Each structure stands twice: as structure tokens, then as C-alpha cells.
Amino acid sequence: MKTDIGRKVDNTDNNDLILVVDDSEQNVQLIEAYLTADGYRTISAADGYEALEAVRSGTLPDLIILDIMMPGMNGYEVCRELKEGHDTQRIPVMMLTALQDMEDKVRGFEAGADEFLSKPVEKMELLVRVKALLRTKHLNEDLESARDVIYTLALAIEANDPYTRGHSERVSAYAYELAKRLGLSAGQADIVRDAGILHDVGKIGISEAILQKPGPLTSEELVSVQDHPVIGEKICKPLRSANMLLTVIRHHQERFDGGGYPDSLKGKEIPVEARVISVADAYDAMTSPRSYRPPMSQHRVLDVLRRESGKQWDPDVVAEFIRMIRDASLPEMAPQKESR
């Protein structure tokens, strides 16, 4: 017998919404009774198809409790679809099972399950596991919100300067495409994309008078500018979701010959993601207008890239970037050409 999709039990003590998916109405009622008594709101579905219909209709729960053995579409298949969906991939899934074989749990984890609970369901174990999953989910949401604030701040800083407006977005787009062409993993390409947005966030700590100075920098001013990778790393360090970006932010100004900063890393000591960002960053800087010069021509930029290949930049990265330009595969995000 089907339970009612969208049937909610409200309780003012807790605002978390939990979707319970099981083809046994008796199991659903029992689990809902445990949850609502502890202050949770619930909705339910009698099979995998109803569960997917519920979340796709806009009812996004904070947690899904999902039976494995169901007719039509089993829990593994439902979980896999949820974890592949952009809007549902971060919803924690607790799988219910009467199966004891380790292979069944491995299969569940491979499908994206976050937790398992054995049948018959014991109240205290259910509530403890639910609370732990929701605590982790809300912590991750808070961290994501903090990351979004830093992303917005980084872009807002650039927006105040007509010479750097859109720079980080272009670097992110160029570097992401370059990373994929170089054969980096999907995870590494994502790191490159996100680091492209944040690579210059440390310039928050640099005086605008220095950043927008129309003439040459003094030695003291140059040292100040060279602090921005370390400042950026410190800004992003509290964000767990940005941990994989920290070394890229810190090392995007290193040189392949060891003459860069802040740590004078050399060659393959420099993280490959930072080597990719470095080329994309330099390309956009050279092709964009600055307070002290007009944008450089494409021909001149390519000459600089070739000349400094193996010195300032990784020669393999430079070679692929030049191929990307010649293949007309560079994302169409042209820098602004206006000058003050």
C-alpha cells in the first residue's frame, strides 16, 4: 500500500525534513513515529519512483532514509540517481537493509550511501545516526555559505578596478579548459576552476594605491604585492571545502625555474594545478589593459609564452595552452578593452 507523498508531520521543535522510502507501510509508519516524536518533519514514498518524483517536484528533504529491497527500482538505483543529480547529490542517504553481507554494504557505498541501518529498526540507533548525518550536512552548508561569501568578495574587489574586472572568472575558465586538455582528473579540473576564482583573493590585503599604480613599483611595494598568495591562503584556510585549493592559491606565482614566490619551488615541486593557473593567469594579464600599458597583441603574448617556456612556466602546460588557442578552444570571455 502506498503512503502519501507530501504528507507532512509538523513539529515546531525541529525544522529538518526527512523523506522515508520503503514499500512496507508498517515500516514507514514506525520510522515516522520515531522521527516525529523527536521533532522531525517527514514525508514518505512507497517505492523508488515515488521518491524521485518527490524530490524532483521541489520537495528537497534534509535527509533520505531509503530501503534497499523494493520492487521496480531498488535502493541502490535510487541512491545512485540522487547522488548524480545536481540538486540532490548533497542530501545524505541512510540505507535500510536486512542484508548482512558486506558486499551489499560495499555496493551501497559505491552508489553513494552515507550510512546504513539494519532492520528491524531500533529507535535510539535511528535517532543517533539521523542526528549525526544532519549535523554533518548543516556544517557543510555553513562552510559552503562561507565559501560563497569569499568568492563574492574576490569578484567584488576586481569589479572596483576596470583593469582587473572579470580577470579571475576568465582565468578560471581558461585554466579549467586547459586542465581537461592536459588530462587532469575531473577532481583536479574542479580544483583548478575554483582556484582560478580565488587565486588573487589575497589582494584584499594589498593597498589599492599599489595595485592601481600607473608607474613602476618600488621594492617595498613589490614585496607587498608578492605577499598576496600567502594572504589568500590564510583567508581560505578556515574553509574545509577550500582545503584542496590552498596549495594552488599559495603557489600560483612560483616559477618553473625556481625563481618565483613565496617558496621558490621548482619544476614538478609546484602543484600541477598551480602550474596550469599560472599560465592562464599570465595570458589574461598580458591580453588585458593595465593602468601602465595597453593590452598586448596575441602574437606578442604567444612569443612571450614560448620564450619563457621552461623558465617561468611548465613547457608542457605552455605547449598545450598554445594548441588550445590555435584550435580556437579558448573560452570566449574576452577581457575588457576600455582604458581610463
Entry keywords:
single chain, 340 residues, alpha/beta, Rossmann fold, Hypothetical protein af1432, 2 domains, 5-stranded parallel beta sheet, 14 helices, 5 strands, elongated, disordered C terminus
Compute the number of structural domains. 2
State the strand order across the main sheet.
2-1-3-4-5
CATH topology of the largest domain: the name is Hypothetical protein af1432
What is the number of helices? 14
What is the CATH H-level superfamily of the largest domain? Hypothetical protein af1432
What percentage of residues falls in helices of 4 or more residues? 40-55%
CATH class of the largest domain: Mainly Alpha
Which value, in Å, is the CA radius of gyration? 26 Å
Separation of the first and last Cα atoms:
71 Å
- Overall shape: it is elongated
Show unreliable segments: 1-13, 335-340
**Count of individual beta strands:** 5
Question: How much beta, percentage-wise?
Answer: 5-15%
Specify the structural class. alpha/beta
Specify the biggest β-sheet. Answer: 5 strands, parallel
Mean pLDDT rating: 86
